[in-house]
Amino acid sequence: MKAQLNPERTIAELKDLRSLTGDANGAQRVAFTPTWLKARKWLRQQVADLPLEIHDDAAGNTWFTLRGESEKALLIGGHIDSVPNGGWLDGCLNVLAGVEILRRINGQYHGKPPVTVRLVDWADEEGARFGKSLFGSSACSGNLDMNEARGLVDKQGIRLPDALAEVGIDFERVKASGKELKNAAAYIELHIEQGPVLLDLDLPLGAVLGTFGVERHAITFHGQAAHSGSTPMNRRKDAFLAAAKMAQEIYHIAERSKGSDGDGGVCTIGSCITKPGIVTSVVEECRITLDQRHLDATKLATMLAEAKAASERFAKEGNVQVHWERLWQIAPRPFHNDLINLCDESIRETCGKSHRLPSGPLHDAAEVAAAGIPTVMMFVQSLHGISHNKIEDTKEEHLELCVTAFDKLAEKVMGWIQKNS
Question: Which of 18, 68, 117, 141 could form a disulfide with 371 if both were Cys (CB 3.0 to 4.6 A apart)?
């Protein structure tokens, strides 16, 4: 009997996983912890009746493979790990929708689809414990900075290599996972939007154009400490004053980055530390962190240049010095035009209207795209525009729509692989 896609089953499994690995504060599936291992064991149980080859690679990513007539493979990706006190959909929706698609494909093609189909549960997408996102996918793509990762330590002082060893992963071999991508012909990923764009447009689904590039810097203004009572306002070298001017300027910079389609970048000052940090002293040193993101590499570079010029202008105006330190950088990762069109088409066939949008957050799809594999993502609307929070939610009718549309996308991409092989 031909298997039918059952989106309601996916929702029920999501609720089962929430009950198994969450508490009153939200999801607790932090990577490399006992709860994460429990979730992965449960996941294997959900596919026990399918004729899949299942194994963990050298980086701890779990692969579920349905062999097809061709070795060329469609990859469907997600991650079952969560942030502490996370939402019930982030990451695991991708995986469980992939499980349901495997069931449908297996039934329709009697266990032998035209191309190989592989579901991957990436290890530690969130980076919640060690501060390094996309661990498993960046190891697989070859982009993991081994020296940086080797030195990562969690709040308990445990080194990343030691934490990996506890779950049977040899840190020095993690890049051997790259062999998994040998026959990969395309990669698709479903995800909750985690923002308010689709919510504000009152649309359930969107096709993702790519993930933003990121420029992340610490900016330190150096002035002079002085008594807050005895120092005239015109004689002060106030490091905080110069930093404070940046707070408004970055909004102007982001606004100027908009294109004709209205899509632009984002800029965020996320932290501010002052020294000496007492009420009776002019601020001698003020360190702020600036996060800038854009899908267009040229516009991202312009945003950065404008921020640097503004900081130097404000420093000069306040008679203080400014110093920049790069904290992190990643290039924009645009997705494949053909697959974006197929994603858009799948959404329109499912719910009548689609919208194309970039992804501000990073995803494993960015690493797969960086490995040269044609990639696309599909977003489903997030209620409240909130994620990484226990109130994260999506309407059940939208969850059903996204599983249906994502399944259509999988079928279309299998045909695309056959055509282009």
Answer: 141
Q: Give the DSSP letter of residue 290.
A: E
Write the CATH number of the domain with boundaries 213-330: 3.30.70.360
Distance separating the N- and C-terminal Cα atoms of the chain: 30
Whether the per-residue pLDDT at 191 is higher than 70: the answer is: yes
Does residue 217 sit in helix, strand or coil?
strand
* CB-based contact 139:59 (threshold 8 Å): yes
Residues of the chain with CATH 3.30.70.360: 213-330
3 state SS of 411: helix
Q: Which residues are CB-contacts of 147 (< 8 A; sequence separation ≥ 6)?
A: none
What's the pTM? 0.90
Which tokens belong to 109?
């093609």
| Confidence grade of residue 341 (pLDDT, cut at 50, 70, 90) | very high
> Which CATH number does 7-211+332-420 carry?
3.40.630.10
